[in-house]
Design brief:
Elements lengths: L1 E8 L3 E8 L2 E4 L9 E2 L1 E4 L5 E3 L1 H5 L8 E3 L12 H7 L5 E5 L2 E6 L2 E4 H20 L2 E9 L5 H13 L4 E6 H12 L7 E7 L4 E8 L5 E9 L3 H20 L7 H17 L5 E11 L5 E9 H26 L8 E5 L6 H11 L4 E2 L4 H12 L3
Parallel strand pairs: 1-11, 11-12, 13-18, 18-19
Antiparallel strand pairs: 1-2, 2-3, 2-4, 5-6, 5-7, 8-9, 9-10, 13-14, 14-15, 16-17
Amino acid sequence: MTTRVALDLGTTNTSAAVVWKERSRLVPVRNRATSIPTAVAVDPQGRWLVGREARAQLISRPADTVVGLKTFLGRDHTSTAFRQAQQAVPYEILDAGGKVSARVGGSVVGLVEIAAMVLHETKDQVQNTLGQKLDAAIMPVPDYFTQSQRDAFALSARTAGFKDTRVVDESAAVTALVECAGRGRDTRLVFLYGLGGGAFTATVLERTSGGHYEIVASTGEDLGGQLFDREIARHLYHRFLQSRGIPALEDPVGLQRILDAAEGAKLALDAAEQTAVSVPYLLADANGQPIDLVDQLGRPELIDLSGDLVRRTLKISESALRAAGVVRSQIDAVYLYGRPCGAQEVAAATFRFFEQTPIRLPVGAPALGAAILAKREAF
């Protein structure tokens, strides 16, 4: 038996979903997780690692670990956005014969092939869970992605062994999930606020006379949870340098450790007002003694550090509203999706912006919605 699977190749994690017993569900993979890290690495012995094992070596071998590849896949390597993103990753991105590639473990590998490794690993784990062969996939991508980016996603899936592949707008997938959940039966205008690891999408839906939602306007840009982590890391980094009188820290492993600590602090502040941040043995002093980064981060600081990014999402949201020809007060329901939407400051900002309590969709909403589309439509 062949099953169509929805694959969401995310900036941070990749998940798969199918419709089972009339419900869209994320497929559990190894150790009952519902996603695998979107990471590929080469270990010291030259072996390729994919998923959780690759993400585990990011701190110790950042230059040989590819993360955040969604930002680069299918992109024009000469663009300003590409060059800016290139500076934020620990590995080398280069143009190899007109193909965007990464140099890891001494090898130059195309990003399409690297993405295919993640999708192939996901495919294998999902097949093991379902006990069924998978050769057809539907993939949601942010609405603002170019045709070149969409083609790269489809090619990655085909390289991973999927014979039949379809790429759909993320908002179309999430719309299917909203409809299937049966919510908003009395709502005419709905707003979708999607904030992922590296992309933000704002969409306005309108209910038709037939009872379905149509996309009236959708826009977005490269803006997600990873940028929040970098802002926190930059703050911790500069405060550490000032406290120690150090001009700069050049060690890429040390910089990655600070970034990892920043992400941990951000998550901890979802449930606490203050958290300790510790990066032991960040460097050594003139006598060879270890110098640790030891700091505290409070919720007010987090709100201040993330404020500009959250405000950017609201400006993009305002653009979507203008494109749809509606104002905030006309929106009947607001749905949030994406892991970063779990942050208190995001929920609070959208509440103030729309003057109503937003509804959080389940984790993996794009994959869940795409599975519904796969079941509903032949492709």
